[in-house]
């Protein structure tokens, strides 16, 4: 059953995230604001303003002391989780920031962008530590592995890239097809996958590639920016 409806945003709500203790809920909207709600009562606690574009992603740091937001204004903003004060603005992406994610210990913050990069920032100082490049299309989502040693980025071309963040090395690129078949590409250009996934390979001048022209889920004309 529906417990409650939280209303007040003046545009589409693009992202929601619970604080770790479950007491507060954050929402990011096309009205350019982040709103923080008391989860039990549904009471609006504060409205965080500063973004100049849609807020597409919100994420709480594990301890709840910081809240990050990503926007199509090309910035990541970090807010004090208690007061709502803007702590810093992280700049450098060349296009929409579609996803933000804190590493489990809060020491790193990752952001994925339509500029086809993932940026990794120091969670405390905001210093840019790494720019991970080589994605085939807009990065739609980023997620840390539990131990923080790996970071996954999903892209608009239907692929998912796995990174060793400390080394800045791409571990693998995986395509998951709509029929359940899968295919991995490794940095040495070798491939692995199930039989159905491997059957999607073809060769041009000795190089293997995924024939996206045959599979609409990987066809640029079938996906957004």
Description:
The chain has 225 residues and is mainly beta. The chain has one helix at residues 195-198; strands at 13-18, 24-29, 33-38, 44-49, 55-60, 66-71, 76-80, 86-90, 97-102, 108-113, 118-122, 128-132, 139-144, 150-155, 159-164, 169-176, 182-185, 191-193, 202-204, 207-209. The chain is 2% helix and 48% strand. Strand 10 (108-113) and strand 11 form a beta hairpin. The protein is globular and about 55 Å long.
| Global outline | globular
Distance between the termini: 36 Å
**Low-confidence spans: pLDDT under 50, at least 5 residues?**
212-225
Quick check: average pLDDT? Answer: 87
Q: Count every helix, treating DSSP H or I runs of 4 or more residues as helices.
A: 1
* Topology pattern, helix = H, strand = E: EEEEEEEEEEEEEEEEEEHEE
Beta strands, count? 20
From the helix content, strand content and strand pairing, which structural class follows?
mainly beta
Helix content: under 10%
The side-by-side strand order for the widest beta sheet comes to 13-14-15-16-17-18
How much is the radius of gyration in Å?
A: 19 Å
Largest sheet: 6 strands, antiparallel
- The fraction of residues in strands falls at over 45%
